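[Meeting: bench + compute handoff]

Bench side (C.D.) handed over the final construct sequence. Compute side (W.E.) agreed to return the predicted structure before the next meeting so the bench team could plan truncations. Sequence as handed over:
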Amino acid sequence: MAQTGSRAVDEKAASAGESGEAKTRILAAAERLFAEHGYSGVSLRSIMAEAEVNTASIHYYFRHKEGLLRAIFEMRVTPMNEERQERLAALERDRSEGAPEVGAVLRAFIEPAIRRTRAKGGQAFNRISALCSVDPDPAVRQVVFDSYDTVSRRFTALLRKACPHLDDEEFYWRQHCIYGSMMYMRTDNGRVAYLLGDRGAGHSEVALQQLLVFLTAGMAAPGANTAGVAGA
């Protein structure tokens, strides 16, 4: 019996990607190109050329370009989110009857992300994540949301318990400050170094500590409404 077209393609791709070598090359090529040109600026043809594979290999492993993007996010985000989940769960178990400590909650969520910035491929992926977060295509933004949502909701719920002094509106806006600061720190475009001189580029430990000090103070500060009443 003659093979179906799809089965023939699968076998061809499997042969081309023996031992997963082709899959690894595709992921590496796509990550480089997405980081440089953005998701929408990269075609499957350019990924094929960079990875030196054929169409069958990409369709066999990822089916389409969005599937490839999801695979990159899964590869990079899964280990980070697993660490975040473990650390947040530990805080939930260990905290007393009172509210959890603001700084501890922030560290549990932020530290795994910042430490991975300097790992191999970390900067490239951070750029992809940032670009996809503001991509005009809702499907692309959804890939980002799907990758982070579960752990982000857990973090937000725990941080909310740590900030009973803030009303909902104040907590909402300070969350903007957290994510904005994290995104800039992870994808540093060199603007601050340009303005002030390079005082610590590449020092992720220093960046982490400064970010945590800044955000902990910001989240622990009295609410604007409360401060206004107290100063009246």
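W.E. noted at the follow-up: Residues 1-6, 228-232 have pLDDT under 50 and may be disordered. C.D. will use this when planning the next construct.
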